[in-house]
Every structure is written in structure tokens, then in C-alpha cells.
Amino acid sequence: MGFEEAISWRRSGSTETAGTAEISSGLYRFAQLRSLINRIGVNVRLRLNMFTNIVELQVPNGWEIHVTDGLLLLLGLDDGLHGVWLESGIYTGDRVIDFAVIKTFQIHLEQLSTMGNYVDGAPSTLLANMGLGRYTFGDTATVRFEQPIVQAP
User: Measuring CA to CA, which residue among 109, 60, 130 is closest to residue 88?
Assistant: First the structure.
């Protein structure tokens, strides 16, 4: 199992990454994540306001950090999304932290033949499994179902 989340750092103005801390996917506790980020060695600080559940990420002078989108969404930060390096400064969360498990929505079609349709090795009528993600109020998500290829008997 590989690492899906990571935080990287480099000196300001440099294009060469000084280091990367890989974070395995799974269930996180804020204290674990904060401890890992605070131990990076370049004095990056992650704090949580216990009254608002909003994080504050402090990048020290002379450094830039890159945080994967999954971690930014988990922490409620929009700054740095889509591969943007965060320059030195203080970044405040845009929404409360969300350590809830990503929910999925399964669509079953009873008319679907279970003859060649398997899920985890068992015959199934599962048509699609959609991740609902971490959306904020007002977000719209569109899912398109391709017409399945039906073979004549």
C-alpha cells in the first residue's frame, strides 16, 4: 500500500524540494497529524482553534510547503489546492476540519444481469459506486453513467 498524502518543503525561491513527509491513507486524529507536521524540521506549525474547529497553518520565513489536496481538504484549507506551493505566512482554514470518513453512494439496478457482474468476487447488481466527497453547502456534483455494453445471449 502506497502513500497517497504528503507534505513537501523547499527554501523560498528554490525549485528543488528539500524534503517530503509521506502520510499513509487511513483514519487520522488531529493530534497525530499535527505532531507529524510539526516535526518536519523547518518549523512548520499546525494549530487548531478548539472553539471554532478551524486550523491555522504557519509556514516560517524562508520556506515554502506543498500539501496534497486530500490533506488540505481534510484540514479545511483551500489555500494550496491543485499543487500550489504555500509561501511563508499564516494560513487560516476556510471551514472546519473534517475527519469524517468519505461516504459512498451505491446504485443497484435489479434488471442488471449478475452473470458477468461481480463485486468482491460475488455476483452483484451494483451499477455504480460514487464517492460523495467532502462538499460544502451549495456544491454541485455531476455523475455520468456510460451506457453499458450488452452482449446478446
Answer: 60
> pTM score, two decimals?
0.63
- How many domains in the chain? 2
116 and 45 inside one domain:
no
pLDDT at residue 132, as a whole number: 64
Tens of pLDDT, residue by residue over 116-132, are 777 777 788 777 766 66
Mention every residue, 6+ apart, whose C-beta is less than 8 A from residue 142.
none
125 shares its domain with 151: yes
CA-based nearest residue to 100, from 15, 29, 5, 46:
29
